[in-house]
Amino acid sequence: MRIPGSARHRKPLDSEAMTPMIDVVFLLLVFFVCASVGQAPDDLLPAMLKGNSATAMPVPPQAVDPFDRPTIRIGLAARDGEETEIRLNAAAVQGFDDLRLRLTKLAEIAPDSRIILDVGDDVLIQAFVTTYDMCQSLGLTDISFAL
């Protein structure tokens, strides 16, 4: 009795068994490339090295949250023609002298405060300029304007 050889049983489609494996390899390659896009580069990460090897990278300083500082809102509105109504954080202020006194105290406590000027459309330019100059002269430099 003769044992059949392996050459007779080979089918011409045996080479197609490699195609699914190649598909899986490329699928994994695409997955790892896409997954690594959102990560920080390794040279930006802090490294604590031991021994007498190269020096360690300094740890970058923590970012300061700009909204962590106190916010002071100064509102100017025209009242009775040329008189200006002044509000400091929604509290009425008697005049520019009282506003200067209150802002001086606030500047001593928190000089990095955020100032928001809310100026009405019918307010005289001189009242706006006086308030703006007052803030700058007290060392309050982060001044924004409300919309």
Q: State the CATH topology of the domain at 71-145.
A: Nucleotidyltransferase, domain 5
Low-confidence stretches: none
Q: Please identify the top-level CATH class of the domain at 71-145.
A: Alpha Beta
Q: Which structural class best describes the helix and strand composition?
A: alpha/beta
DSSP summary, beta strand count = 5
Average pLDDT taken over every residue: 78
The spatial strand order of the largest sheet comes to: 3-2-1-4-5
Can you walk through the features of this model?
This protein is α/β, with parallel strands linked by helices and 147 residues long. The protein contains 4 helices and 5 strands. It has helices at 6-9, 19-35, 96-109, 125-137; strands spanning 71-79, 83-88, 91-93, 114-119, 143-145. The chain is elongated. 9% of the residues are buried.
Short description:
With 147 residues, the chain is α/β, with parallel strands linked by helices.
